[in-house]
Amino acid sequence: MSTILFWFRNDLRLHDQPALHAALTSGATHLLPVVCLPSADEVTPWGFARVGAHRQAFVASALRDLGVRMAALGNPLQVCNASPATALPALAHAVGATTVVCEDIAAPYEQAEIAALRAAGLQVRTVWHSSLLQPSDMPWPVTDLPAVFSPFRNAVERAGIQPRAPLPAPASLLPPPLVPPDVWSALGAAPALAEQGANASDHPAGRDPRSSFPYGTPACDGSEAAALAHLAQYLARKLPHSYKATRNGLTGLAYSSKFSPWLATGALSPRQIYADLKTFERDHGANDGTYWLWFELLWRDYFRLLHLQYGAALYGARGLSALPAARHNAQGFDRWCQGRTGEPLVDAAMRELAATGYLSNRLRQVVASFLIYDLHGDWRAGAAWFESQLVDYDVYSNQGNWLYIAGRGTDPRGGRRFNPVRQAQDHDADGSYRRMWGTL
Ligand code: FAD
Q1: How far apart are CA 356 and CA 391, in angstroms?
Q2: Residues with pLDDT less than 50, the chain
Q3: Residue 353 lies in a domain
Q4: Does residue 269 share a domain with residue 143?
Q5: 304 touches ligand 1 (CB under 6 Å)
Q6: Ligand 1 mutation pick, 231, 251, 290, 397, max ligand atoms within 8 A of CB
Q7: Which CATH number covers residue 374?
Q8: Residue 257 sits in the same domain as residue 285
Q9: CB 255 within 8 A of CB 360
Q10: Residue 368: CB within 6 Å of ligand 1?
């Protein structure tokens, strides 16, 4: 008997799961699938929780669904309340395993997790599978990524690079090994089953009627089932056709795709979205809206590739730029977080973010610009607040967009300043959004 550990990270799904596929076809006879919950007490250097209540609730519902699906295939998912560096070596020791398979994540915190496992003597096989396009399918080595998005997109399109087809969910799993109960209890572990823990729909903030993504309702919970159902209804309602025209909206579920929360936890694969979008185009026609969904998913890939190219350099105070590091404006930052800067559009947006865990792309741009250019704050504190609050927090997209707005990424045109007064005139002309959040 040989056991392999499978560590779920930001890939909480069974469909299109190349890392799980690699574990299942590794030759091992038993599989130990594990997830490690980040500690709710973990605090950022800026003094607030790294994972706020919205994301905790959303991820919890994703885990419950994954647990149910895996239990039905004969191998329940185990959820450990311990860091991977504590849990995985202890479990490997208990079952005589030497290898862990998991998703490859090209960001410093996540790479340090892998380094800690290797330092503990485990063999770690990482599998890259979070992007739409495979980095090795690109027409250039990862170190030669074009510095600007448009040349990148043009080169991808000219070369005709296509996503690989999504893998089907496995029809069966390997059986679990026996783990002594005291090992599980030492790790605070329990199987992720439907009846356990608070339900996301019990979280009142997840059902705020003002939310554009009410993650506490069954249609928007974190499960893979909800993710796939959401994709199906988005296509059935032919919303891709109007996406380009509506994507800068501020309220409601339908103005943009709302794929991001499930993409962030991994409950939805970008390649599944693309495959279904192509079927939609075949059946109902392509237009600028369907093209623009591909365009935005390419932005998502671009920030992933940027991480493969620059890694930890993206996380310094100056980013990739020669600009002086910004000073942290602690008072301004607190007012910004609480939605009390005195700028009605910014305050409305920051109140929406704190109350619901979601914010439109347009308003993410406006509030990031305000912190950087009006409050002269440190962009890294803003990125950390987004990490804490967003249900769709994605390390690559968050860091990449903050760097881009701050003018500290690769784009030679410098940063992006958004005038909040003009943005309010363009996107909230009747003031209804600001009134909804009590700032007008
Ligand atoms: P849609 O408009 O429907 O877009 C479809 C998909 O394309 C999205 O789900 C997303 O995967 C991708 N996409 C769209 N815009 C971008 C973009 N600018 N950058 C990268 N990918 C994009 N997105 C996250 O997923 N997680 C984050 O933590 C995050 N932080 C951000 C921080 C800032 C400062 C800014 C300006 C943007 C951030 N974004 C982030 C990007 C974008 O705002 C969200 O992806 C988008 O609002 C999610 O809603 P949607 O799925 O309805 O997007």
Answers
A1: 9
A2: 195, 197-198, 200
A3: yes
A4: yes
A5: no
A6: 397
A7: 1.10.579.10
A8: yes
A9: yes
A10: yes
